[in-house]
Amino acid sequence: MILINLLPHREAARKRQKEQFYTQLGLSVLLGGLICGAVFGWYRGQIAGQQERNAFLQAEIARLDNEIKDIATLQTQIASLRARQMAVEELQGNRNLPVHLLDELVAQLPDGVFLTSVKQDNQNVLLSGVAQSQERVSELLRNLSNQGAWLSKPQLVEIVASTLKQGSRDQKRVSNFTLRATLSRPNTEPRGPGGNDTGSASQAPGKV
Fold first, then answer.
1. Would you say 103 and 199 are in contact if contact means Cβ atoms under 8 Å apart?
2. Maximum separation of any 2 CA atoms in the chain, in Å
3. Is 70 helix (H, G, I), strand (E, B) or coil?
4. pLDDT digits (tens, 9 = 90+) for 129-175
5. Do 208 and 115 contact (CB within 8 A), yes or no?
6. Distance between the two ends of the chain, CA-based, in angstroms?
């Protein structure tokens, strides 16, 4: 017996294919939406994390700016303290300069030379005195040039021959001189056994 299918199977097959296509299309759209949502969420998370890091960095930069300002203030204070310390040290060092100057003059003055005045202007020292001869003045210049620890670069300003009266009739020829020298500091100052500077002002009046 022969069976013949008279139903429209082609239309049914096309309908099934169309339904499968729409189903697959819907699933694809749903899957694409899920993927897009996941990517969007991931990017949002990255952006939020970067914003948090930026906020942290800005806070740290502001804190460091404040610390830099504090450091600049401290540096200014340190520089001021150093300037004060240097001024105090200079004052303490200059306090003993007259003693060293007199000791130097006592040590370097040759016999036959007498000082009448000593003037100091900052680092310049002007010496005026009387010598028995010009050779004595030359000897003083050599002593200050070669052996002077606190006086250097001596220069003769002037020397004038004159006479010095001794008694009622006796006269002696002498040389009045003026010389200039530079007051300098040696690298190490001599110290006595007790730690004090050697030399005393009481020795100066012997020849000055």
1. yes
2. 187
3. helix
4. 888 888 888 888 888 888 767 777 888 888 888 777 766 667 778 88
5. yes
6. 162
